Amino acid sequence: MFTGIIQAIGEVAALQASGGDLRLRINTGRLPLDDVAPGDSICTNGVCLTVIELPGDGYWADVSVETLNFTTLGQLRRGAKVNLEKALTPASRLGGHIVSGHVDGVGEVLSLHREARSVRFVLRAPTSLARYIAHKGSICVDGTSLTVNAVDGAQFELNIIPQTMAETVFGQYRSGSRVNLEVDVIARYLERLLQGDAAAEPGSPLAESGLSRDTLADSGFLRR
To answer: What tens digit of pLDDT does each residue of 96-105 get?
Structure first.
C-alpha cells in the first residue's frame, strides 16, 4: 500500500523485452534504497512493481503483459521520468489517501493553464471510471494523491500547486499526455457491497453497469 505522496522522481535507465513482457530498470535518484530488499514494492508512476534486483543506484522490476496492456508503462522510453514512492509502513504518515498501486485505467490530459501560482489541469477518464470520480474526492494520477476540484461527465479538473509541479512528473505533462488513474478504493468496494447478492451472479448486468436507482432503492437508500 502507498499514500500517493511522491518521494522522488526516477528515470528509466533500461528496458528489456523478455518473452512478451518487459524488464524495467529505474534509477531512483535521491530516493534512498537502504531499507529496500528484493521482493519489496515501489510505486512507479502509480503502478505497484516488485523489486527483483538492486544494482545500487536503482532497481529492476518485471512488468507483465497485463500491466503493459492496462497502464502507460509500455509507452516508457529510456530517459523518461517517473514518480516513485516506497511502500508505506505502520509508522508512515498517511499524508495523501490509501493507494493500492493497482491502476484502474488510463486517462488523458485535455488542457492546462496557469491559475495564479498553480496550474489547472483538465483530464478525461475512461467512461467506465467516471462514476467513481467525485467533486472534492480523491484520485491518484501517476501515483500522485490529488483532490478533484470539478467534475463534468468523464472530465475532471485538478489544481496543482507549485510544490507538486516541482516534485512530480506533472511538470512534464502537455495536452494529450496519457496518465495512469487509480480511483478511490473506498468507492470501488462500496459499489461492490451495494450490489448485494447480485455480485455473485455470473454475467450479471449489474456487475458491468454499476449501481442504479433500483439497486439503491432495494438496499434502502432511496424510496421508490
So the answer is: 899 999 999 9
pLDDT per residue over 8-64, tens digit each?
999 999 999 988 899 999 999 999 999 999 999 999 999 999 999 999 899 999 999
Task: Find, among 105, 148, 138, the residue nearest to 4 by Cα.
Answer: 138
- Rg of the chain's alpha carbons, rounded to an integer? 19
**Domain boundaries, given as residue ranges, for the chain:** 8-86, 187-218
Please check whether residue 166 is in contact with residue 193, taking contact to mean a CB–CB distance below 8 angstroms.
Answer: no
Note whether 108 and 176 are within 8 A (CB): yes
CATH topology of domain 8-86: Elongation Factor Tu (Ef-tu); domain 3 (2.40.30)
Single-letter residue type at 22 = L
Q: Which residues pair with 83 in a beta bridge?
A: 9
Q: By C-alpha distance, which of 88, 87, 33 is closest to 60?
A: 33
**Helix H or strand E encompassing 49:** strand 47-53
pTM above 0.85, yes or no: yes
Q: Tell me how far CA of residue 207 lies from CA of 69, 195, 210, 211, in angstroms.
A: 22, 8, 6, 8
